[in-house]
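Q: What residues go here?
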């Protein structure tokens, strides 16, 4: 088991230990996909809100099992997504679950560009903090090489308050690499990309101000807002649900969970109950992608 050491200010973790750590994350990511994870859903929503009619290509860095990548093409008929992750296990599962003409997945540690393409949007959902700080200059250089001339970078990260709380009270909740991104770090990334920070929000998911949502754009929009829309606040109003509305929402969530559980069973041959009972590192996907994955003896073995 990978130890949680040197989590800030430089890390002793090498690529092999980091890869092993995230290979062991696959089971948790599948459970999050089926059962729903509010932090992830809020982050995916931020990325989708940044996908415009001219966004044709998206690079999803740290895509995990591909749930984020799949959500980005919803309602976007002309958009394709390339999901990359350091974990081969995650990429094999992502390919089995979501791979298709508009979704492709590959293994990458982003120390070099994953391909020769320039992307309209690069999504870094809860992953920048898992790059060792001493590797940030190279990571930012690669992001710069991958980003299109008018491209946008969307990031979500734990807030400094969140990271401080974990270090002081719940160090076991930290991952093998878990840095803290401050505002000056975001500004440095924007400067390196030749872009501007057009959104920097501390948001509350589980606690007030526990995550930070950021959008950096190389070409911020400055088109006129229609007069009828100028009087409407774009700040989300407080959600007030009646009991009937709350019941309908709960029913919809249960239906979606069942649909996703069925999708996982068909694609991977594993039940969510087995995932809940099994340890997270019991879910392994072996051999090559492109075939149906079958769960057996604590592993996901891909078969034709």
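A:
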């Amino acid at each position: 088991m990978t130890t949680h050491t040197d989590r800030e200010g430089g890390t002793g973790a090498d690529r092999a230990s980091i890869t092993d750590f995230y290979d062991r994350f696959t089971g948790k990511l599948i459970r999050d996909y089926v059962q729903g994870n509010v932090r992830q859903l809020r982050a995916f929503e931020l990325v989708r809100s940044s996908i415009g009619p001219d966004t044709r290509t998206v690079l999803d860095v740290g895509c995990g099992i591909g749930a984020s990548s799949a959500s980005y093409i919803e309602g976007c008929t002309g958009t394709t997504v390339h999901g990359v992750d350091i974990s081969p296990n995650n990429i094999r599962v992502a390919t089995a679950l979501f791979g298709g003409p508009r979704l492709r997945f590959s293994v990458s540690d982003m120390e070099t560009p994953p391909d020769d393409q320039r992307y309209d949007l690069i999504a870094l959902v809860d992953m920048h903090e898992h790059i060792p700080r001493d590797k940030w200059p190279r990571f930012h250089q690669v992001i710069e090489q991958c980003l299109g001339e008018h491209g946008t970078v969307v990031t979500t990260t734990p807030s400094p308050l969140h990271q401080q709380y974990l270090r002081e009270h719940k160090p076991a909740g930290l991952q093998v690499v878990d840095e803290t991104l401050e505002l000056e770090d975001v500004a440095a990334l924007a400067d390196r990309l030749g872009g501007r920070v057009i959104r920097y929000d501390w948001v509350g998911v589980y606690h007030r101000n526990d995550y930070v949502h950021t959008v950096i754009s190389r070409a911020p929009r400055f088109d006129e807002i229609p007069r009828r829309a100028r009087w409407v606040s774009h700040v989300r109003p407080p959600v007030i649900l009646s009991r009937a509305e709350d019941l309908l929402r709960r029913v919809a969530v249960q239906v979606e969970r069942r649909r996703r559980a069925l999708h996982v069973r068909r694609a991977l041959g594993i039940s969510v109950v087995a995932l809940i009972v099994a340890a997270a590192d019991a879910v392994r996907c072996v051999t090559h992608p492109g075939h149906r994955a079958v769960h057996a003896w604590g592993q996901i073995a891909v078969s034709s």
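A: Context that may help when evaluating the design: The radius of gyration is 20 Å. The chain is about 40% helix and 20% strand.
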